[in-house]
Design brief:
By secondary structure, the chain is α+β, with helices and mostly antiparallel strands. The chain has 2 domains: about 5-80, Structural Genomics Hypothetical 15.5 Kd Protein In mrcA-pckA Intergenic Region, Chain A (Roll), CATH 3.10.290.10; about 100-340, Pseudouridine synthase, CATH 3.30.2350.10. The protein is about 25% helix and about 25% strand. It has helices at about 5-10, 30-35, 45-55, 125-135, 170-180, 255-260, 285-295, 325-340; strands at about 15-20, 30, 55-60, 60-65, 70, 75-80, 100, 105-110, 160-165, 185-190, 200-205, 205-210, 215-220, 230-235, 240-250, 305-310, 320. Strands 7, 8, 9, 10, 11, 14, 15, 16 and 17 form a 9-stranded mixed sheet that branches. It is globular and about 65 Å long.
Length: about 350
Amino acid sequence: MTTETELIEAEDQELFEHHRFVVDKGQALLRIDKWLMHRIPNASRNKIQNAAEAESILVNDKPVKSNYKVKPTDVISIVMAHPPRDTEVYPENIPLNIMFEDSNIVIVNKEAGMVVHPGHGNYTGTLVNALVYHFQNLPNISEHSIRPGLVHRIDKNTSGLLVIAKTEIAMSMLAKEFFDHTIDRTYQALVWGDFKEDSGTVTGHIGRSLKDRLMMDVFPDGDHGREAITHYKVIERFGYVTLIECKLETGRTHQIRAHMKFMGHPLFNDATYGGDKIIKGTTFSKYRQFIDNCFKILPRQALHAMSLGFINPNDKKKILFESQLPDDFIELLEKWRGYSINKEL
């Protein structure tokens, strides 16, 4: 049986750097398990070998086995699924855009740029810090969780809707809905390129990239990662870019971003997945300037969590919430509408 903790981990596979070393220029070749034993307090060789087996030891951002021999100037990182500090979350008086609240849940419309929960490099200023300040005794997904009230998340630079559980029963009910894929979630995204069809479905397991662990990749054969299903439909065509709606059946990390890149349609201005450069268009300098201006209007991936529907733990009735596109996204679309009509560039 899948636990609530496993559910959150399935949707939020973050890795946190616990140790980082740069090997001396004069270092002789030496097995990495032996090398690390003398540099990490209370680390046995067995623990280090287990960490290597779990791909938690990275050399120059790539996982290595325990028999890897360290070389001069190697950058060695030890990464774990939990943060390298205590699990206390400090309350901060950060304004929240609350769309709905009852005794069991809160619906928050998150602005782009806000990290959802504390993690490596972001222990303050997060949505969770704000929640702890504004609400007392939020339930945790597990005993050692630093995610009070959270049963799902959206990326830092994605805007839109999140549901927060205020009680244990709400946490349990919502977690089950996410696990059973009965949550209705739609996103709007501006992506590079045009689509032949007006709608479609993207399938393919999503897992952490084997080349870059900050990214997620699609594995069509299902030999790595977890099953992921995204349904999409075209809302508006602009020629070189397209506004689409995505409906998620599953909730994998970076699901829409990874699936769209896999299809050859990376999200507009998505730096992680290659959308922050010109993918489609002309070679005219005016067009390049137009795109640069678009990037300045929306300096992030063009993705917004538009709607969220689920069974309300309060009265067991289905409810649906919708959020308008933020101003920067609207301004970007207006600019593309003007371009597609005038065709002057």
